[in-house]
Amino acid sequence: MKKNIIAMFAYLLLISQISCNKKDIDPPVDPPVDPPNVSLLAEEGDSPVWSPNGKEIAYIYDYENLYLMNSDGSNKRELATDIMEPPIWSPSGDYILYIGHSPSTLWVLVRLDANGDNRIILSGDTTKPRLASWSPDGQKIVFNTWNDGGPLCIINTDGTNLHTVTANVYTPETPRWSPDMNTLLFTMGADSDRDIYLIDSDGSNLIRLPNDSTSETHVQFSNDGTKVFFCGTNYLWGSDIFSVNCDGSGFVNLTSNQEFSSSPQLSPDGTKVAFLSHQSGEDAALYIMASDGSGQQRLIGSLDGLYGVSWSPDGKEIAFGSGQKIYSIRVDQ
User: Fold this and answer.
1) CA distance 70 to 76
2) What are phi and psi of 285, to 5 degrees?
3) CB atoms < 10 A from the CB of 200, how many?
């Protein structure tokens, strides 16, 4: 009997040692705020977007309030109380664009001065806009709508010359301008079968890019406008980050060694891609890699998930949301 008790005690001690060793090997992955390369910017908020000059970050607070803070997290102030999608800075940084709501409809395109003054509804109450982006010269806005077949529309930034580019789109994400403004990039189709399309900004020359049996999301032009970066999902094996030339050639899987990768975001100089990857039971981890897929590096993970990745204009920091908080992490360049 004494031998059995001793044996049981030894077994429990061994299990305890294994458990302690495992804790040493697999530490928690919540975003730390003590290491010098990570900063907690906001105790509550999501969808951070850096200003073009790198001095401020716009974000959503409490689901529908547009807030602005300095890039170090100081001087938080409210700009609007009716935001419904992430804010969008104008290329000059003079304005913030967002989808808001009015008394008669839930969907209006709103332009604000960067300090929150001069709220102007650009689209009117009947268009029901969503998912907008500025042209590179800051003079036009492209957006999708909920009305009349979900067309892509373009409007001047003063609210004039609203017109349809192409109808029956119902794109589930933001359309993008090419750097020369001649082409629009968007996806179209059901969540399980989205395809990438290009169309001239005057509505001509609609082209579908080959999709290699995946559903495409998070499309983005390369800085020179010759390639498209995107997330491709096959619901049998997961998702990866890809690139393809705008003529449909050069289809490359950039993250074939990852388990589940999504949300690619090119760095301002176009040489790196930040993306999220789900591996080894984590909700998400933030990675960066070179734009050719080399040099993949894990930056940080979180038990609460990561989302809303935004590069600083100088490419030295990345802001992101996690657990309804906003952090920034410095990136070695």
Assistant:
1) 7
2) -135, 150
3) 15
Q: How many CB atoms are closer than 10 A to CB 158? A: 10
Query: What does the pLDDT look like over 104-149, one tens digit per residue?
Result: 667 899 999 999 999 999 986 567 888 999 999 999 999 988 776 6
Plot region of 52 (φ>0 → left; ψ -120 to 50 → alpha; else → beta):
alpha
Cα separation, 71 vs 49, in Å, equals: 10
- Angle ∠(309,314,317) on CA atoms, nearest 5: 40
Residue 3: helix, strand or coil by DSSP?
Answer: helix
Residue 18 DSSP symbol: H
Phi, psi torsion values for 12, nearest 5 degrees: -65, -40
pTM for the complete prediction? Answer: 0.85
C-alpha to C-alpha distance for 308 and 314, rounded to whole angstroms: 18
pLDDT of residue 125: 58
Residue with tokens 């409490």: 62
Percent of the chain with pLDDT over 90: 57
Distance CA 122, CA 161 (A): 10
Contact 325, 43 (CB under 8 A): yes
**Rounded-to-integer distance, Cα 20 and Cα 11, Å:** 14
Continuous segment of H or E residues that includes residue 250? none
pLDDT tens-digit map of 40-67? 999 999 999 999 999 999 999 998 999 9
Q: Are 220 and 262 in contact (CB under 8 A)?
A: no
Spatial neighbors of 277 by CB under 8 A, at least 6 apart, are 255, 258, 259, 260, 261, 262, 284, 285, 287, 298
Q: What is the DSSP letter of 255?
A: -
- Under 8 Å between Cβ of 195 and 216: yes
